[in-house]
Write a sequence for this structure.
């Protein structure tokens, strides 16, 4: 990849992070929340999602391809930065570093998560409530999944903030501050939804 | 008169015992290994980092009492408008001319802004920034083979905020503060993005705004910004660099769509 095209790749990276990847994450966490209504409700929802028409096409074009680009180009971005929170311990500089740390962690978490669920499905396993309950019965796995969900909600919420700056929508310091509060609310709400769903399997 | 001299004497007595300790990161040539050298100076009221460096130059003896070479640094205006004396003081980049000794905890650590190539001691080569200014055409082209006449008028309120952007002295502090200006990237830095906004705002400068935007849409341009917003915290002139960056984000995005979809991709 030529550095000359960095601008366009960065913009693509910013766009894909919200549409479709961010929307998918929000949707995924909401569907997971069916687990709080019991195994039947979760299995019905998971069957519905897993048997959507054109499901392979939807998976590849809405999830895998955009996610892989966002993940791999994101790792490049993360390792290009030279973090300096010791020098500037400002809120934004911390968010900058945390965005990169959670991003790299999510590459690992999501790879593992896909292996444990989607790859196992392709190999013949059933993705249902019992499968998740089995995975999360291990306390280490539960901790890993909670960390993964929190990293994802943080990365998405803070990503909304930087998406709005990168696309030149929020320019004034005032608008950027207001969106900071909105992004914090997104983080809290999605985290509660995501963690409640995880705990429902335990 | 005599009252005045006693006052001065009192002050001298008060400060006679006080000393100031400096730790300076030194480097003899551009290629040689850096090393640290300490200096202990007698405290004087209202002392700043430059006056301390001048004192070391006058009497280059280090803290161990050994004769050494004078410390090299750059300076020019001594009133924080030229940017030449920028260095990293106690971990943060800023101008040394306005760095009052009283405001720092000791020992006061002086380092060159290592984001730039170090020439000697505290002197760095900021040519990268000047080259970038050429790349983005940070000027208003008015030369022609005939008199082009008057340009369009600039609205007064626009002039007022554009003036804030024009305070940039290319000192390099925002590049030193930015986590994305480093060996891994070619990012021109926050100051340059703000300069594009300044010259694109000027009514005559705006006649070439697509050229400037095209430059920051390539390698080292605005795409490299990661929104850590250190630049706006670090800028000694209080330039709204992050607002400039967001404004240029919008301008480059619009330009990108114009280039792809429109036949009106030139200036307007």
């Amino acid at each position: 990849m030529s550095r000359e095209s960095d601008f366009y790749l960065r913009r693509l990276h910013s766009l894909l992070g919200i549409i479709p990847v961010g929307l998918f994450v929000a949707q995924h966490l909401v569907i997971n929340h069916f687990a709080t209504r019991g195994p039947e409700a979760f299995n019905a929802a998971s069957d519905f999602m897993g048997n959507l028409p054109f499901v392979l096409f939807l998976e590849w074009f809405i999830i895998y391809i955009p996610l892989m680009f966002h993940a791999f180009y994101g790792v490049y971005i993360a390792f290009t930065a030279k973090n300096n929170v010791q020098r500037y311990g400002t809120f934004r500089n911390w968010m900058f570093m945390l965005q990169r740390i959670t991003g790299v962690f999510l590459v690992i978490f999501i790879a593992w998560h896909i292996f444990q669920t989607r790859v196992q499905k392709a190999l013949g396993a059933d993705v249902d409530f019992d499968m998740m309950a089995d995975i999360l019965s291990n306390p280490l796995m539960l901790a890993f999944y909670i960390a993964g969900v929190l990293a994802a909600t943080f990365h998405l919420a803070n990503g909304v903030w930087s998406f709005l700056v990168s696309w030149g929508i929020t320019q004034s310091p005032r608008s950027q501050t207001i969106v900071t509060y909105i992004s914090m609310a997104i983080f809290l709400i999605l985290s509660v939804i995501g963690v409640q769903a995880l705990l429902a399997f335990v | 008169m005599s009252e005045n001299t006693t006052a001065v004497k009192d002050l001298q007595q008060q400060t006679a015992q006080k000393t100031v300790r400096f730790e300076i990161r030194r480097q003899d040539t551009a290629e040689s290994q850096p090393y640290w050298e300490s200096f202990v100076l007698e405290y004087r009221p209202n002392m700043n980092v430059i006056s301390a460096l001048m004192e070391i130059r006058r009497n280059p003896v280090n803290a161990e009492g050994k004769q050494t070479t004078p410390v090299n640094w750059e300076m020019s205006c001594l009133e924080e408008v030229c940017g030449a004396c920028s260095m990293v003081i106690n971990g943060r980049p800023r101008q040394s001319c306005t760095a009052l000794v009283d405001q720092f905890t000791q020992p006061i650590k002086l380092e060159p802004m290592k984001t730039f190539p170090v020439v000697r001691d505290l002197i760095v080569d900021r040519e990268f920034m000047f080259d970038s200014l050429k790349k983005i055409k940070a000027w208003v082209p008015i030369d022609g083979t005939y008199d082009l006449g008057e340009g369009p008028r600039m609205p007064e309120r626009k002039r007022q905020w554009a003036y804030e952007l024009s305070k940039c002295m290319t000192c390099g502090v925002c590049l030193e503060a930015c986590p994305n200006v480093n060996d891994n990237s070619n990012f021109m830095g926050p100051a340059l993005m703000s300069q594009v906004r300044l010259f694109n705002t000027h009514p005559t400068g705006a006649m070439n705004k697509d050229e400037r935007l095209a430059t920051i849409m390539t390698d080292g341009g605005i795409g490299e910004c990661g929104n850590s917003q250190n630049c706006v915290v670090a800028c000694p002139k209080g330039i709204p660099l992050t607002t400039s960056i967001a404004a240029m984000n919008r301008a480059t995005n619009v330009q990108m769509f114009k280039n792809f979809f429109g036949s009106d991709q030139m200036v307007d």
User: Anything to note?
Assistant: Residues 3-200 of chain A form a domain with the 3 helical TM bundles of succinate and fumarate reductases fold (CATH 1.20.1300.10). DSSP finds seven helices and no strands in chain A. The mean pLDDT of chain A is 95. The interface with chain B takes residues 2-4, 6-11, 77, 79-84, 86-88, 90, 92-93, 96-97, 161-162, 165-173, 176 of chain A (CB under 8 Å).
